[in-house]
Amino acid sequence: MRKPRNLAGGGGDVDVLQYEILQEKAAVLARLGTKLQAALDRLAEFDAAARPGFGARERDALVAAAGEALWYFVVQREVLGIPDSEGMMRQLGVPREVRLRMGLNRRPGP
């Protein structure tokens, strides 16, 4: 097994645990990215199909879900030390309203 460059130290053995942790962090980022893209796609599909003034509650729920997904994705990027979340949001075409709702989705109580 060849050492990844960022784990190759002073010629010692690969720290297998650290390598597996890094792999898991990357896998989590990929899963969160997939969930974010799906939430953005659902919002875009709703907007494309909906008539203006109808389904405001449904749309609000989609925006809130996309905001929550964006929050998790940005936090994981920061955990990994990946800079420029703003550039990523531009690249993904994250709407301003989703950015403003970024954070935990506060669902009403029972």
Features:
110 residues, mainly alpha
Main beta sheet: strand number and arrangement?
Answer: none
In total, how many domains does the architecture comprise? Answer: 1
Mean pLDDT, nearest integer? Answer: 85
Summarize the amount of helix as a percent range. 55-70%
Unreliable parts: none
Shape: elongated
Radius of gyration (CA) equals 18 Å
- Strand runs, count: 0
Alpha plus pi helix count = 4
Question: What is this structure, in a nutshell?
Answer:
With 110 residues, this protein is mainly alpha-helical.
Description:
By secondary structure, the protein is mostly helical. The protein has one domain. 65% of the residues lie in helices and 0% in strands. The protein is elongated and about 60 Å long.
Helix and strand arrangement:
Elements: H1 16-49, H2 56-79, H3 85-92, H4 96-100
Helix pairs in contact: 1-2
